[in-house]
Specification:
Length: about 200
């Protein structure tokens, strides 16, 4: 059974849970796992919405904690301003369209000019779940959604069908107090794993 390292409370019904497996199942990228938390131990972040759980990332603790700390610091300083080209809550929609168009190098598909998505990126999973943090109108937002898996053969109809039904898995404003609390917890983990 997974062990809870930290819980990031969003609301009564929504939490992000940072978990690691017990010692006998623990995986470390470079060293033999120990009881102590190590920066190369693989952790899992789970989004829990009304007891429905979704894996958001499975990665080394240093990547999970340091990325969260960095993005929260930037968001609290209003450094992650969402482009005016992107509608609030639709970053993944724009990302999916640009990703598909770039993959097929299809000039006929709509494209968002000069959007750098990297500053907003928080985490991703092997099955292409993406998490983003950004600022808009002086507020902080968290958006989580699926990336369209590009098939071996171009299929614009399948892509358009995916996009017509697409909606983010999670999209909410993060109140400043909650972002500050999460930042404190992320900094504590970063110190514990020796990445401070």
């Amino acid at each position: 059974m997974m062990q809870l390292i930290e819980q990031f409370q969003f609301s009564k019904d929504v939490t992000f849970e940072l978990m690691i497996p017990p010692l006998e199942e623990k995986y470390n990228y470079f060293y033999k796992p120990t009881e102590a938390l190590h920066k190369f131990d693989v952790g899992t972040v789970i989004l829990n919405v009304n007891k429905i759980k979704t894996i958001i990332i499975v990665e080394a603790m240093q990547d999970i904690a340091c990325q969260l700390r960095s993005r929260l610091k930037e968001a609290l300083q209003s450094e992650l301003i969402l482009s005016s080209q992107i509608t609030l809550g639709s970053l993944m929609t724009f990302y999916n369209r640009d990703h598909y168009r770039n993959y097929w190098q299809d000039e006929n598909l709509p494209y968002t000019e000069n959007i750098d998505y990297d500053p907003f990126w928080l985490w991703s999973t092997p099955d292409d779940m993406q998490s983003w943090i950004y600022n808009c109108n002086g507020k902080i937002y968290l958006e989580i959604g699926k990336v369209y898996i590009v098939p071996e053969l171009q299929n614009d109809q399948a892509f358009e069908e995916f996009m017509s039904q697409y909606k983010p898995l999670f999209f909410e404003e993060i109140p400043r107090e909650i972002a500050q609390e999460w930042l404190k917890k992320a900094e504590k983990i970063v110190r514990e794993i020796g990445e401070d």
